[in-house]
Design a protein that fits this description.
Elements (H helix, E strand, L loop, with lengths): L3 E3 L3 E4 L5 E2 L1 H12 L5 E11 L2 E10 L4 E9 L16 H11 L39 E5 L11 E7 L2 E8 L7 H7 L3 H8 L7 H15 L6 H29 L3 H22 L19 H25 L3 H7 L7 H7 L4 H4 L7 H4 L5 H4 L11 H23 L19 E8 L4 E8 L5 E7 L2 H11 L8 H8 L9
Helix pairs in contact: 4-5, 5-6, 6-7, 6-14, 6-16, 7-8, 8-14
């Protein structure tokens, strides 16, 4: 075989991953995807090996729970056949490879820049000459929003092409931050520094990215976390999901001028994040997740306190949700607004809620389970209409589901492990991959080590990397006044995209 199959959170030696010429590499990965909607690319990237570049493609099978890893060593002097011409879900991965290494594709749909990283191959590519799509017509006009926005959100530019109030096309261009966070994982040598980087990839997914980093690092160090560690991680992930979904329901209510929903949902987020502060000293869960240790053990006393919080939270949430989802004026704004079809979601490789709203089952908790999710027997919540209504329904149902999971877990809080294992040195010349289902969707962290067991490459994929295109598709043929509610119903990450 010209590939190796691994499970989630597994480490293999780089020498165990077969290397193919690009023709075989291309045909094999196209064959993986052809006729298999249960498979999708979770990461595809390259790194320099002398004057060449080694490509690594990771295709997950959501039925067999395997991840197929393949590699190819290529030279930028030779144009490559594009995966994207057959499967559009590869387009952003290949655009990034083009931007980073200067590869040209013979048939890529449009290999324009993705992020403008500081170390990009072509320094003449700058934001001022970004090739926005345009239509030459006296009847159409363009509307630009951003990159600087009111409030505290990150920079991003939205370019609308409209016929009157109707949106014909939206192009979203990010890439303003040039943070270089992936390279910082290699430059910083202390574990605490790297864990801090992980929880700052995107500020609303501290637990999600923190768990992905911890799992990658522990796998490389051949460390098996005790039950109390995985219990804390699972619990924190579900509490983060509750807090963000409730906050986003508040924001959606704001966008439809439903002040009661905005106020109540906004208030209900507070006790959840305040509990996180009681647990670990940070409302955003900073410093809670660390590889190889349980810094803030979850005690029976904390379990009792969380039960009290949920006993007050749950009836208020249910009452407000019932009001919102039976309010005709709200439903008229939600239903048939911002529709993305199943075929489009599959084509672009949507993940998480942006996939599940179309009945595309993408949920790592079920397909590649980690921590305690196999015990919880997680069942993904699917809707099928792909509109704002489907997205807000998923938020509501996932809050209810997470409440059930948390209450189940609180009935059996594990004892704190007394055996202190130390993290060993990382496996040299190795590759490790971790998938985590954050509240927004699929997170993927990949790490490669060198001959000394030092990190030589760290690759991050936030679900927003896939899903910004879903937002752009959702607003087509909608009025431009519907953009805020469409945008907020996805609530994608700028910083998670601009790494």
């Amino acid at each position: 075989m010209n590939y190796i199959s691994i499970k989630n959170n597994q480490t293999v030696l780089l020498s165990d991953i077969p290397e193919s010429n690009y023709e075989w590499f291309y045909e094999m990965n196209i064959e993986f995807m052809t006729g298999h909607p249960e498979r999708h690319c979770v990461n595809y990237f390259g790194y320099r090996v002398g004057k060449n570049v080694k490509l690594i493609c990771c295709v997950a099978d959501d039925v067999t729970h395997e991840i197929h890893i393949s590699t190819s060593l290529v030279n930028k002097a030779h144009p490559l056949e594009s995966f994207s011409n057959t499967f559009l879900c590869f387009e952003k991965f290949e655009r990034e490879i083009h931007e980073n290494f200067g590869f040209n594709y013979t048939d890529h749909p449009w290999s324009k820049p993705v992020r403008y990283p500081h170390d990009r191959d072509d320094k003449t590519q700058i934001m001022d000459n970004y090739p926005f799509y345009s239509i030459d017509s006296e009847e159409l006009h363009e509307v630009g929003v951003g990159p600087i926005h009111a409030g505290i959100i990150e920079p991003g530019h939205f370019r609308f092409i409209c016929n009157g109030e109707q949106i014909l096309h939206l192009e979203i261009q990010l890439g303003y931050q040039h943070r270089g966070i992936e390279s910082l994982f290699v430059q910083k040598k202390q574990l605490a520094q790297r864990a801090t980087l992980a929880e700052n990839i995107t500020g609303d997914t501290v637990v999600g990215h923190g768990v992905a980093f911890a799992h990658v690092y522990e796998s490389l160090a051949n460390f098996k976390p005790a039950r109390d560690i995985e219990f804390a991680r699972t619990l924190a992930l579900e509490l983060e999901r509750i807090a963000i979904h409730v906050g986003d329901l508040s924001a959606v209510c704001t966008d439809i001028a439903y002040q009661l929903g905005s106020a109540v949902f906004g208030r209900l987020r507070t006790p959840i994040i305040n509990f996180m502060q009681e647990w670990c000293g940070s409302r955003l869960s900073k410093s809670l997740i660390r590889p190889g240790e349980n810094r803030y053990p979850f005690t029976p006393e904390l379990a009792q306190r969380l039960c009290q919080v949920l006993d007050v939270f749950e009836p208020d949430f249910m009452e407000m949700a019932n009001k919102l989802f039976t309010l005709p004026s709200a439903l008229s704004r939600f239903e048939r607004t911002g529709v993305v079809s199943f075929d489009d979601a599959l084509s672009i490789g949507a993940v998480g809620m942006a996939a599940r709203m179309t009945n595309l089952n993408r949920d790592i908790r079920a397909s590649h389970p980690f921590s305690l999710y196999a015990e919880l027997e997680h069942e993904p919540i699917l809707k099928r209409h792909g509109d704002v209504y489907s997205r807000v329904q998923i938020r509501r149902r996932e809050v209810e589901q997470s409440l059930r999971y948390v209450r189940t877990m609180l009935t059996d809080v594990p004892e704190i492990s007394t055996v202190n294992q130390e993290l060993k040195a990382l496996t040299p010349n190795a590759f490790s991959l971790s998938l985590v289902e954050g509240w927004r969707g699929e997170i993927c962290h990949c790490a490669l080590t060198d001959t000394k067991g030092e990190l030589m490459l760290y690759k991050i994929k936030d679900p927003s990397f896939h899903n910004w295109l879903a937002l752009a598709l959702s607003v087509r043929n909608n009025e431009i006044s519907d953009f805020p509610i469409c945008n907020k119903s996805f609530n994608l990450s700028y910083s998670g995209h601009d790494l």
